[in-house]
């Protein structure tokens, strides 16, 4: 299974939903990078992803996007394929 990285904050409901969905699809380990306490990490996330909101999710080298993007991939069956790659 490819590595999953998620930029998040402590009180983000979409981050919690994304984590729950990933766990439901068999992801055991999610590397969470908390950007709420360190503005430099948030700036790095924004530079890397081009987005300001959390969560920002990577599966392997692919930037999936936020929770809505992750859920859309799940609805089409692409999420499972990505996780099995």
Would you mind describing this structure in some detail?
The protein has helices at 13-24, 39-49, 67-76, 78-84; strands spanning 4-8, 30-34, 56-59, 62-65. It has 85 residues and is an alpha+beta fold. The chain has a single domain, classed as Glutaredoxin (3-Layer(aba) Sandwich). The protein has a four-stranded mixed beta sheet, with helices on both faces. Helix 1 links the parallel strand 1 (4-8) and strand 2. It is globular, with a radius of gyration of 12 Å. The N and C termini lie close together (7 Å). The mean pLDDT is 96.
DSSP strand (E) fraction? Answer: 15-25%
CATH class categorisation: Alpha Beta
Return the string of H and E elements. Answer: EHEHEEHH
Name given to the CATH architecture: 3-Layer(aba) Sandwich
Which spans have pLDDT < 50 for at least 5 consecutive residues?
A: none
**For the record, what is the CATH homologous superfamily label?**
Glutaredoxin
Largest sheet: 4 strands, mixed
Average predicted local confidence, pLDDT: 96
Strand order of the largest sheet: 2-1-3-4
Q: Helicity level, as a percent range?
A: 40-55%
* Oligomeric form: single chain
Domains, number? 1
The DSSP helix count reads 4
Number of strands: 4
Radius of gyration: 12 Å
List keywords for this structure.
single chain, 85 residues, alpha+beta, Glutaredoxin, four-stranded mixed beta sheet, 4 strands
What's this, in brief?
With 85 residues, the protein is α+β, with helices and mostly antiparallel strands. Helix content is 47%, strand content 21%.
